[in-house]
Amino acid sequence: MSAAAAEYSFTRLSQAELDQICLKHERLMKGIPGGMRAKLAWCDLSGLSLKGRVLKDADFTAAIMVDCDLTGAVLDGSNLYCVDIQLSCLKGASLRRVDLRGACLRGANLEGVDMFEADLREGAMAMPDKKTGLVYREISERASEAAYANLRGANLERSKLTGIQAMKADFTDAIMKSCNLSRANLKQAIMDNVDLEGANLSGADVSGASLKDAVLIGAKTDMWRVSQTDMTGVLTDKPVGQDITDLPYGNMLRQHALWVSTIGKEGTPSVFDKADLRGLKSIKGFNLAALSAKGAVFYGLDMRGIQLQGSQLDGADLRNCDLSGADLRGARMAKVRMDGANLEGAKLGALMIAKDRYMPADLSDARMRNVNFTFADLRMAKLDGADISRSNLEGAQLKLEALENVTCMGLRGKIAE
């Protein structure tokens, strides 16, 4: 602590005092008389609870919030400039568009936090002068720190993380599209399955980090350091397997559609095994029943309303695909990757192949984290070993017993059994 910081004493609040401030802020947000904006700048809130509190646009400038409970709190648009939030729990909290410049997040639990467009760049720290009450003494500019922080499944899309110190932080499954990570220190960070599409990693240091199965499509990586970095399965702009542009896909799809519509009398079934289909951009509404695309890459395709009944999709990459309204009954999708996909209203149940004979959709060992399953039909689907953590199951048709052998941490929504 600097000499100027030592001279200035932070206002220590009790839990009762903090609760009163929160109540007044919530009254203000609801337009109820007696409300007042929460002004917690230069306050010491260490060890206190803000669990589930709605404190949009509150002022926490330079506050000490070490070991606080902010589980599920809503702090959208708040000022957390140079805040010290070490070791605090922010699981499932919403910090959209917050100012976190110069903040210290060391060791904090930010699993599943929503930090869309948050600002975590460097921040210049200043202290009020106790003698005059007017003069501010500039201390130093410091980078935001998130070393050892847990950011698994966090939404950091379009956030500003220039120069952030995040050594050994865990970003597994985080959404970091169009994120600015230039000059960031990410040494030995865990960034497995992170979506960094369009992100700026220029000058970043990811030495010794793990980026297994990460998405780096359109990412800027000029002058970045990747010594001993694990980049197994990273998806870039380069085609994976057979490039779709090397195949007569237009004719193949027409022949497949003809084969389906004539029940096999005409046309030819298409085979896209291990092909990179991203070049198709959209296959919205196509009837591709019984398609074989094992190990194929569909990443980000518009597949709304597509018919893929009985298809062979084992090991395919369907991350971030829009499959709303899709018919996937009876499809074989063992070990498929569908993280971030939209399956709203999709049919993922069993396909009737004869009287009293059904072929269930096979999603065994599938990785489907952060998927939108709202109003999807999952009746009779095989889910053994699947991972649907942090997914939305609002209104989905599914028996609870079907989740017995499924990894389902942080699920959202109410199932319609």
TrEMBL record:
Pfam families cross-referenced by the UniProt entry: Pentapeptide
InterPro entries recorded: 5peptide_repeat, Pentapeptide-BTB/POZ_domain
Residues in coiled coil: none
PANTHER family reported for this sequence: BTB_POZ DOMAIN-CONTAINING PROTEIN KCTD9 (PTHR14136)
Protein name according to UniProt: Pentapeptide repeat-containing protein
